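Structure tokens please, single chain.
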Amino acid sequence: MTGSEILRNEELVVVCCPDISGHLRGKAFPLADLQARLQRGIGWCPTNVQITTFDFIADTPFGALGDLLMIPDPATQVRVDFGDGSASEHFMLGNVHETDGAVWDCCLRSHLLEALSRLQAEAGLSVKCAFELEFQFLDDTPNYGPGFSLIGLRAKKAFAEQFLGALRQAGVEPDSFLKEWGAAQYEVTMHPRIGVTAADHAVITRELARATAERRGEAITFTPIRDPDGAGNGVHVHISLLDDEGRPVTYDSAGPGGLSRPAGQFVAGILHHLPAIVALTAPSVISYDRLTPHRWSAVFNNLGYRDRESAVRICPIVELPGMDPAPQYNFEFRAGDSAASPHLQLAALVFAGLDGIRQGMEPPPPSEEDLSLLSAEELQRRGYVHLPQSLPEALDRLAASDAVRSWFGDRFIEVYVKHKRGEMQFLEGKTREEIFQAYEKAY
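Here you go.
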């Protein structure tokens, strides 16, 4: 190299797909090739879908055979410069296709797009949605002050300001950041978005949280539950429905808890299918340590009125003079965590909700009590079903559901179950403490 030649870094763009493990996986290419890659994508391998969260390949029906294309969606492009001399975060989400352009039947983002398309075509409805994400810091400080306190927020205010700045630069509109109840636990929320963008923003938010922590020399985890005796880290999905004109149609003052007829049927579908789809929304071995009474998570398939231990919660609205309830009104799904892909979580909820509309299902009366105190006979009388209490039980319910198979296809369900059984196989012989530590490290 002569004195006049200066080495210039080649900026890379990563195209990623959300996968079964709850992570993003992808390939990088030079920024100079972006326009070409938007058309022809980048090569991908079918067996990549079977890479578990513990970074080994579960039993795969694909083996070493086959080729796919991952085609980036330019609407998802993220480019964040942290201004510290580090490489920018430059990535895009993509959909996985066959080499002839057909949608691959194990592409999670494509499943969500299909669910949303069917909801629009059959019911004339779209979904407006926002995700709440909880996570914990990992260091020698056992706690950062009381839950919801200014002391706790002050401890990580510098992180929060840099993180929320990164979100805004990425096109994600932050809503709130707070010190949560658990040890070293925080929560971030974002403004609602319509359709697939809501799940895209949830994924971007998680990745930028990790990127911010790394640049600050800190470490965080989105594990479903870090301490079996402590608080869990949930993913709460807030949903409202819009009609063809974009008008809110979730609220009706005469409906149960304020739910309109289509919204009530949508919620009834979620509750009806929840014992089968919880394997998709809370998909780790330790997820079921969180889905237990008095952890502010879900235990039964119930609709709750402002109840943070219900599977679906009717959320409060501002009732001040002049405030229209219709645009505010939403319901919150609480039986999920960050071991799952937000795209798969939302796809399962939309498919289940649409089935509720198709079948004209009626929602149960909203509960306002601690259901864990009721006898098994009383729970049965009221129609409440205890959610699966382990991942193997949840997978059995998933595999046995003809409805869920009809939404996602037999091959995807078989691949998913193999993936999760491989995850469980990795944990065989480990102590309970080692299992929790493995998930803490993975997420």
